[in-house]
Amino acid sequence: MVEAFFSSKLGSDVKLLLEEAIRTSYDLFKIMVPISLLIRILKVLGLIDYLGMALRPMMELMGLPGSMGMVWAAAMTNFYAGVAAFTSLVPDANLSVAQVTVLTTVMLVAHSIPVELRIAQKAGTRMRAMALIRIGGAFILGWALFQIYRIAGYLQDTSTTIWVTTTEDVAWLDWVIKELKNLIMIFCIVVALLFLMKLLTRLKVIALLTRTLDPIFRIAGISSKASPIAIVGLTMGLTYGGGLIIQESRSGNLSQRDVFVTLTLMGLSHGMIEDTLFMLALGGHISGVLWGRALFTVLMVFTMAKVLAILPQKSLDRFFFREAIPDHVSSK
């Protein structure tokens, strides 16, 4: 009976979905398990407060405990390392929904910085300029959301998360069991996200989103040549969109200005569906992780387009543009 099911069209689709979910989850777990174990050891040794200290002042200005600097620092190294740090530290921090929203939004804007900045550099932009936009932009948005939520008294209830709560004083066996439950939960979320993405594609929701966003891109200053690539980056992630824009940059089909503005948009808001859903599952609120991030991105892209239009070419070459790096140059 089982073999008959998997030999059917529906069964084949389910099998492919599960295989993709297993591959994706395995890649995540290779990152998350060591990070979770490291954080557990650091918590037992009482060293967790000393990590992320360089980010402590920024975290406190965004209304977050300084210890959350560890979460953002991990996310800036790798997105899923940040998720692992989040699941290990946040459940014990007694944060409000507003605070979790600020933290998850900041993680979305500035994560996987070494890899993603290298992609931007290979496309022909200055790494330091993109780093300032990503990290500085994340801080500005996080600070703005904190002020809005504080003044409005919005989302001040204590956050509850679907993740299994971990505490410092549990025995190692109990901790392992709870972490296994976490991993099972993550696998279920991966399956749900992959299914949703395939469903949205089949229902042509992604195509509708593409048509809807095109006028907004034009207003923000993204040309018609660059808008299809920007939409790929927004929906599928910076790796996919960045690969396309590197190719277009080297071929000369896009101007340097188009490349920079498009990478600004994709850097601040890529993976808008999958990553947003992931952060909603962590406890972030849609007002920040989606609408706040989207509005901030449009404003930043519009501003950058205006700035690039008025600066002399010498300044642009010095601070924003560089030659696209050929394929044979390895990423280090």
Concise structural overview:
The protein has 332 residues and is mainly α. It has helices at residues 2-7, 9-45, 56-61, 69-77, 79-89, 97-109, 113-122, 127-152, 172-202, 205-220, 227-236, 238-251, 256-268, 274-282, 286-310, 313-319.
Would you write up a description of this structure?
The radius of gyration is 21 Å and the shape is globular. It has helices spanning 2-7, 9-45, 56-61, 69-77, 79-89, 97-109, 113-122, 127-152, 172-202, 205-220, 227-236, 238-251, 256-268, 274-282, 286-310, 313-319. It contains 16 helices and no strands. The N and C termini lie far apart (51 Å). It is 73% helix and 0% strand. It is mainly alpha-helical and 332 residues long. The model is unreliable at 164-168 and 327-332 (pLDDT under 50). The chain has one domain (10-319).
Topology (SSEs and partners):
Layout: H1 2-7, H2 9-45, H3 56-61, H4 69-77, H5 79-89, H6 97-109, H7 113-122, H8 127-152, H9 172-202, H10 205-220, H11 227-236, H12 238-251, H13 256-268, H14 274-282, H15 286-310, H16 313-319
Helix pairs in contact: 2-5, 2-9, 4-5, 6-8, 6-14, 6-15, 7-8, 7-12, 8-13, 9-14, 10-11, 10-15, 11-12, 11-13, 12-13, 13-15
